[in-house]
């Protein structure tokens, strides 16, 4: 007969239960001996005042499980905020101030178990915020059909995001434009204005919501702007790539007919085929146009091909646009001349690629392509007769390049 010791069974069951509890506790991250020891304090603290903030320098504690150092403070809007830096950094930049008064900052070290060190406080006096420096130094310059806002690089050297509230009035009506910029040097165009005098006012806001009051910036009369007439334009074929393939033609690039996705009957695009251009797409692919007159421009628009042969059930008409697809032109340079010998470079431009990892294009970018991709020159061009449109890239095709239309804006018949 086998003798069973009930007491031993109970003891063994108890031990198994304890082991099971320990096992599940460990699996759930609830360790029995959880670290509750806080990190050492942050030491060797100093700061460098910046426009609207400061850069804090420090020595983080040497704890092996240190996670980050946190700087807590109240900004000029009265909001309690904080900035952090990892254990590998020795500085934190804080911002959100508009005055030149002392502000108390609290530095705390936090470890992986969320233990916090004793806080260390310091007083920081920032420099006057850059939003005031930008507002006060901002100048306006007249342009074709509008004005340009400019400021000196030294007033926003770190390229902080700012929002410009520009107000302009003629008579009793006041209009508003809200402009955004993170440029160190401002050069923001505002178009769509008549060639009449306007009184301009401006205020500047930072990313935190601090905003200056509004000040007057003067009275300006925008220059008269025209859409450059294309009826006199011709292709200089001897200096241009061959773009007359199938239904496409280079003259379609300036026929005032913008390609649509719903029909191929307009034939309103050029088709550059490598087979007709030496067997490969040797960028840049130049399209040289004789305007047969002298013009000055300050901006222009280009349109991609929109039509896409994709659906045989709909007679080749696709439900989608061809925008941003492999054969469409993407980046290019613009040159102008009066003698076809000496060329002035007006800049390099890129339509960009907004497709996500699955090839989807945001609705706003589709609308941008429909409306035309607008590019603004740094300053108005010299008067010129000849235009060289030098295509630098497409969206990946090694066989074709497509484009639909170009329109220039400025002064015609100069």
The fraction of residues in strands falls at 35-45%
The description of the largest β-sheet is: 8 strands, antiparallel
CATH architecture tag of the largest domain: Sandwich
Order of helices and strands: HEEEEEEEHEEEEEEEEEEEEEHEEEE
Globular, elongated, flat, extended or rod-shaped: what is the shape? globular
Structural class: mainly beta
How would you name the CATH homologous superfamily of the largest domain?
Answer: Galactose-binding domain-like
Number of strands: 24
How many helices? The count is 3
CATH class of the largest domain: Mainly Beta
The end-to-end span amounts to: 120 Å
Helicity, as a percent range: under 10%
User: How large, in whole angstroms, is the Cα Rg?
Assistant: 32 Å
CATH topology (level 3) name of the largest domain: Jelly Rolls
The tally of structural domains comes to 3
Which stretches are poorly predicted, pLDDT < 50 over at least 5 residues?
1-11, 18-27
Mean residue pLDDT: 89
């Amino acid at each position: 007969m086998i003798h069973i010791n009930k007491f031993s069974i109970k003891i063994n069951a108890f031990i198994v239960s304890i082991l099971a509890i320990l096992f599940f506790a460990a699996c759930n991250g609830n360790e029995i001996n959880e670290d509750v020891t806080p990190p050492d304090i942050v030491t060797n603290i100093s700061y460098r005042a910046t426009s609207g903030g400061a850069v804090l320098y420090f020595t983080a504690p040497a704890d092996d499980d240190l996670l980050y150092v946190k700087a807590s403070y109240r900004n000029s809007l009265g909001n309690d905020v904080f900035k952090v830096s990892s254990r590998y950094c020795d500085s934190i930049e804080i911002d959100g101030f508009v005055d030149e008064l002392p502000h108390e900052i609290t530095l705390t070290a936090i470890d992986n178990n969320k233990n916090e060190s004793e806080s260390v406080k310091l007083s920081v006096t920032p420099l006057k915020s850059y939003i005031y420096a930008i507002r006060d130094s901002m100048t306006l310059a007249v342009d074709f059909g509008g004005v340009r806002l400019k400021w000196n690089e030294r007033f926003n050297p770190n390229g902080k995001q700012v929002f410009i509230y520009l107000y302009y009035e003629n008579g009793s009506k006041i209009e508003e434009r809200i402009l955004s910029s993170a440029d160190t040097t401002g050069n923001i165009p505002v178009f769509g204005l008549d060639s009449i005098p306007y009184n301009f006012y401006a205020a500047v806001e930072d990313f935190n919501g601090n905003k200056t009051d509004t000040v007057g910036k003067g009275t300006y009369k925008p220059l008269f702007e025209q859409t450059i007439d294309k009826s006199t334009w011709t292709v200089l074929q001897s200096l241009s790539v061959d773009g007359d393939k199938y239904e496409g033609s280079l003259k379609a690039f300036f026929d005032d007919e913008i390609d649509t996705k719903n029909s191929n009957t307009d034939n309103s695009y050029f088709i550059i085929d490598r087979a007709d251009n030496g067997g490969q797409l040797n960028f840049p692919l130049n399209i040289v146009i004789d305007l047969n007159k002298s013009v000055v421009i300050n901006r222009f628009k280009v349109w991609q091909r929109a039509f896409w042969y994709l659906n045989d059930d709909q007679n080749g008409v696709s439900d989608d646009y061809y925008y941003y697809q492999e054969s469409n032109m993407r980046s290019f340079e613009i040159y102008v001349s009066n003698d076809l010998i000496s060329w002035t470079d007006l800049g390099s431009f890129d339509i960009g690629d907004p497709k996500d990892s699955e090839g989807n294009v945001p609705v706003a970018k589709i609308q941008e392509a429909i409306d035309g991709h607008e590019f603004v020159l740094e300053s108005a061009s010299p008067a010129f007769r000849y235009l060289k449109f030098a295509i630098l890239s497409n969206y990946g095709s090694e066989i074709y390049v497509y484009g639909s239309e170009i329109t220039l804006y400025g002064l015609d018949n100069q």
